[in-house]
Amino acid sequence: MDSRVVVKISQRSDVITPHRLTVAILIREFCLIRETKEVCRKTIRDFCILSLQLIQSPDLTLDELRSSINEMVFNPDTDLLKKKFDAVISDIQEVGVRYLLDIIESFGTLIAVHPGLGKFVSVNKNSVIGYYLRRFTVSFDRLSFSEVTTFCESYKRYASGWNKTQSIATSETGNTLSSKTKEPQLNESDGNSSREWSRRQAELFIATQSSLILNNEERAMSPKELHENIKSLLKSNRSLAEAHFLNYLNYMRVKEYCGAIESLYHCFDRCADVNPMCSSEDKTKSYRYATLNLAILQYKFGHREEALSALEEAIKIAQAAGDNVCLQHALSWLYCLIQTNRHKLMEHSILKSLDLNLSYIMSLGIQSFIQYAGFTKGNPKQALDTITKSDIVNCQQSYRDLISSSYAQKSAIWLFYGKTEMSSLWSQLLLYLNTDNPTILKTHYGEGYCQAICSMACHLHLEGEYTIAKTVIGFAKERFPNEPNSHTWMLCDNLMYFQQLIYNEKLSEAENVAARIGVVNKWESCLRMAEILIHRRDYKEAHKCVNRILEKFKDGTQQFRMDFQVRAMILLSEIQIGTQYPDAAMPGILGLLNSTLAYANDYHLKYLASVAQLYIAHVQLLMGMSTQALSILDRCLVQILAHGGCYDRARAMLLYVKCLIAEAGNKEADERKADILQGIDLLKNVKRNFEKVEAFYRVKDVLYLQSQLYNEIDMTKERNQCALEFNSMSDSFPNINNSTLLISL
User: Fold this and answer.
1) Which of the chain's termini has less CB crowding within 10 Å, N or C?
2) 438 preceded by cis ω (within 30°)?
3) DSSP character for 222?
4) How far is CA 310 from CA 255, 266, 283, 285, 596, in A?
5) Which residue windows does the record flag with biased composition (Polar residues) (predicted)?
6) DSSP 3-state assignment of 113?
7) How many CB atoms sit inside 10 A of residue 665's CB?
């Protein structure tokens, strides 16, 4: 008996609502107009699109429905349609049930076969509109007379608000604009909670919004708007588990833990409340995937122990049921949660997924393995060769999200290894990549796309193109307004702004930006804070910041990025240079820099290795070993000039000029003068690069050095010009510290 009741309720999922009747009336009036006069093709096309949208949309108020009619291109046909439509609505309110029954009966004549012509009069019964009218008519015929009377009264209340709005708008001529703007807002807020959603409308809405959140977040509803629609949807479909899962995804967008876990529990409850005739296998399947989703939720919020506990439970249930697919999904999350034997787990997951023909998990596992290899001394050549296998699978299966992720990962790998030009190239390839899927009319704009945009913005910023970089990052803000993708452009935007403030010596503002960076990446924030303290010459506090990172690396409890370790060691060497120069302890700094260089080479961090070599050359110059410094620069300048930004290129060439002039001190007068002239010529390009990134305190260092060199070769006019420019810049951009030309790189 209970099972029959459940079946009956599930079969009769359509609800007769005033909105559905109004849409049917609109279709009827348009069909009658077509019978009496010729209607242009554009009007027919616009009406077909409008009717399809109204059929698929949730229930609208009469004001909202009529405003959608007004959006059609104005012509005599649409004007006539609005007049006839308004007349029918008014007649239903005046006459009542008798006229309503006549309207319902007329729907059948629209799809009847003409007895003389043997063809359809207005609507093809197999079309979307024909199916809608037939289904509405059948549902209405099932109602009892008392239900019809109740529905008629409900429809009068539905239309009464619209009539009230019309009367206010026409009677108060002096206050017409305010009444038109205020009344629909009240109706919208009241009607949003009273809208009726059919099962099909709810499923379409959930599928559409889920797809947009995954593939094109810009077109998805905002978290607040989506939450209100889900609340309205659940009032009409309380047992719809998918709605609770969409609500869970929406809470995840704003990182609302309590709401996310509550929605997930509600989803599990609805999934567990299955038909009693279902097998035990279907019930256990629901339980194990529920536990797996709970583990993912805990992982997203950083609760590793809770996530691992839930994941172990999912693995036990899946093993007992022999569900290899669930086990592979669990395994792909297991190596994200543990720190030991991760490479073995990844290899096992990839091979097992290949045996089970789970191509998506296999391709995702390969990409995860490449990321892990980059952090653990993986060979770059083998890593790039391996990711090609993922590309083959992605192209064969048309995995648009994994294709974008692969391009973004290649860009990240090249950037990690210090090849910024190659990283920029792969980001551009991704932005030019056509991710349209013609079979499902869907374009993917996911995490990889956001990372590519931010990568290009950072590259432009390094080249001193601040305006263009700001425009590019603004595009990322519009395209990805919500979490978790918003964290990517937030970090990028703050890093760019921080670097610009450092160049401008606005250290107080830079300190605030460094604190904001800590919200997204605390170790990056720690490095940037140490950089600020070094600029302030507060070496004691800077040493504390650097030590936090070095101690984290020595801890070894969690996987730590080696580039952070190398950058921290470079900053430590800069602190030691500032505190020990010109003491005899300078050779000890070379030991630290050599260790830094060894770490960078072990992990194939070519650019950071070149930066470490720059510092080694700088220390050797301070120790009077200019010949050895030039030898070091010959090995690292190519990498810096090819892949460094304007600032790094400028300071590398400035160091080269210093070494060149120092080496010229042991030469003859003519050779020395030639070297000085060569150095002055190189300094002009250095000055342009510093000016481009607005590092004016370094521009003054260059001008000071130029004036000294001009003075040494008796070029008085040029010396005075440099001195004049230096004084002018000192008035416009005063240094917070004295000139650091000698000891700073």
Assistant:
1) N
2) no
3) P
4) 20, 17, 18, 15, 41
5) 186-195
6) strand
7) 9
